[in-house]
Amino acid sequence: MRVTYDGTPKQTETVLSRGNKTTLQVRDDSWVKTTIAPVAIRLEGGGSSLELDGRTMDKAKNVYIQGQVQLLAPTSTASIKHATFQPSSAVGGIIFPGTEMTVEDSEFNFEGIVQTAPRSSVTVRRTNFNFYKHVAYHLQAGRLDLGTKVDPGSNSFTRTMEAGTSPTALLIDAPKDGWSSVWSSKTTFEGIEPMELEIMGPGEVR
């Protein structure tokens, strides 16, 4: 499946694919938007791949996703570049139980990423997590790379200031299995940039 709009603003209500080895591409100032159901994109087939790329540094022309993205196969992959994520019906961000995902130059508003698969790997660069009320990044298993000494993350986490909320930037439920971990360098949490660090197993950063 290929969805390419080549610079012409369009809206697609909900994308659902159950086919194996399906590749969904969304490009150039395009929208995938749901106004009824909370899920904007759902890929269920084995070996599915999601590619989002606004292909410009102008954030106003990012690929725009309203609603949650779900890649449900354990063999799925994703490449996210120049994309903005906004919730629908209070549900948004990405649910990722796949193998490998890269996220670059993107914006997550209110909802972030849930990474669930053992032996999975996610790399995040130059990406902002904004206004989250609960957890911006939930690592249940796998490796998360928020930056290294040789490849700085340049990410930021900025919670909501709404009263009565308990925002957490990074929640690590991953087991101490010798694989699951978080690396972070040049990533700020509420404007504070900690030293380069590695966290193995359970922990959290508020």
Secondary structure class reads mainly beta
How many strands, what sense, and barrel or not for the largest sheet? 8 strands, parallel
Instruction: Kindly give the count of domains.
Output: 2
The counted number of beta strands is 24
Taken as a percent bin, the fraction of beta residues is: over 45%
Protein described:
This protein has two domains: 1-111, no CATH class; 134-206, no CATH class. 0% of the residues lie in helices and 46% in strands. Residues 1-5 have low confidence and may be disordered. The chain has strands spanning 11-12, 15-17, 23-27, 31-33, 39-43, 49-53, 63-66, 68-71, 77-81, 83-86, 94-96, 100-104, 107-109, 113-115, 121-125, 128-132, 135-139, 143-146, 156-159, 168-172, 181-184, 188-189, 197-200, 203-205. The chain has 206 residues and is mainly β.
